[in-house]
Structure formats: structure tokens, C-alpha cells
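Write out C-alpha cells for GPW/gp25 family protein.
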Amino acid sequence: MDRTTGRHITGMEHLKQSIADILTTPLGSRLQRRTYGSLLPGLIDQPDNARTRLRCYAAIASALMNWEPRLRVTRVGMTSGDRPGTATVTLEGEYLGSSVSMAVPLRGAA
């Protein structure tokens, strides 16, 4: 189900929504599922430099490997948004046996 409209979604739209949910959920914040989420929200206030970017890439890749079995990530990128607290994650990988490339906008993320 689409989190904003309540409509039924499938395929790539569902995958993008799932990725955004995983990446913006802080680890340990869900009761009964403490390992769900990523370390990305904890990197929000870190300096925007190469070290932090590398930590963001690692947080994205490890969270998706753990929580999104439909996607095999082969490349991760990230660009800062126009406003503070926004970013766009670019992913390449395999989804259901075919190559995919997508951009997933994040709000409230590093």
C-alpha cells in the first residue's frame, strides 16, 4: 500500500517505498524489530565530507542487504538535496533478475 495515498502499489514503486522506509528508520527504533532500519539517520549532523559519504554508502548498502531481499545492490551514490535534511540516493543493481537504476528521494536523511 502507498504510504501517502493508500492505493495499492507493486513492482518498482513498492521497492522504492520500501527502500526509503528502511533507510530513514533509525536502527533500534522499532519495537519487536530492533535490527530493522539503517545507520543513515545517525549521520545527519555529520560533516559533509568524503569520510561521512563513505559511511553513508556503507550504511545504505548494509541496510539494503539485510532488509530488501528483492534487490541486489551493485552501486550506491548519494547527492545532497536543495534543502537541509534532504538527499537523493541513487542505486544500481538487480531486481527480479534484471538490471535496474533508480533514484530514491529521502526526507529527513543525511
